[in-house]
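Sequence decides. Consider this:

===
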Amino acid sequence: QVQLVESGGGLVQAGGSLRLSCTASGRTFSTYMGWFRQAPGKEQKLVAAINWSGGSTYYADFVKGRFTISRDNAKSTVYLQMSSLEPEDTAVYYCAAGQRGYSDYDYWGQGTQVTVSS
């Protein structure tokens, strides 16, 4: 079992930045870590993902150039640096962990709210 706890969400003005963190505990070895988001009334979407070494990453088109995913395996933590935030980025952001690939996860965090005001 892996437990994931996200932090770093909050309220920010458009154009601002936030950094989300997700710390894993328990059986912490997970090859793939990802960040998803879900806005009210909308489907959950994969935002970014990273492999174990950090040498391979994935970004959804709607965040490319604005968000950066990274991980510190010594701290069992994955980060999502979000810049140039837009009101459309408002959502609950979830961290996920798994072994099989960028879009297939076994463990999920409880989510952290990000609200971007215009």
In short: The radius of gyration is 13 Å. The chain has a mean pLDDT of 94. The CA atoms of residues 67 and 82 lie 4 Å apart.
